[in-house]
Design brief:
about 90 residues, alpha+beta, Aminopeptidase, about 30% helix, about 45% strand
Length: about 90
C-alpha cells in the first residue's frame, strides 16, 4: 500500500513515499514566495527506479500546490521534465 508522509523542516519541505512500510523515495521543495514553491530534489531508491514512483512524487507536490493555491517551478531536472511533459 502506498502512502505519503509530509516532510517539514527549517530548510525543506516535501514528501516521503512509503510502499509496504518501506521508504522508496522523497521529494523536497523550497518556498520562493508566500504563494510559490520550487521543487529542488527528487530521489527514488535505486532498487525502486523505473516503477513510476518519481512521477508519483512530483504529482503529489503538484496536488499539494493545487490544494493550497500555489504556483510551482522546479530546479530539479527530473521534476522539471515531469512538469513539462504534462504541459504538452
Amino acid at each position: 500500500m502506498e502512502r505519503f508522509e509530509f516532510i517539514e523542516g527549517e530548510t525543506k519541505e516535501g514528501f516521503y513515499l512509503i510502499v509496504d512500510e518501506v521508504r522508496v523515495g522523497e521529494i523536497t521543495f523550497r518556498w520562493r514566495k508566500e504563494d510559490s514553491i520550487s521543487i529542488n530534489h527528487t530521489l527514488v531508491e535505486p532498487k525502486f527506479r523505473g516503477l513510476g514512483y518519481g512521477k508519483k512524487l512530483v504529482d503529489k507536490v503538484l496536488q499539494y500546490a493545487e490544494e493550497n493555491h500555489l504556483s510551482v517551478s522546479a530546479s530539479c531536472w527530473f521534476a522539471d521534465k515531469v512538469i513539462q511533459s504534462q504541459l504538452q
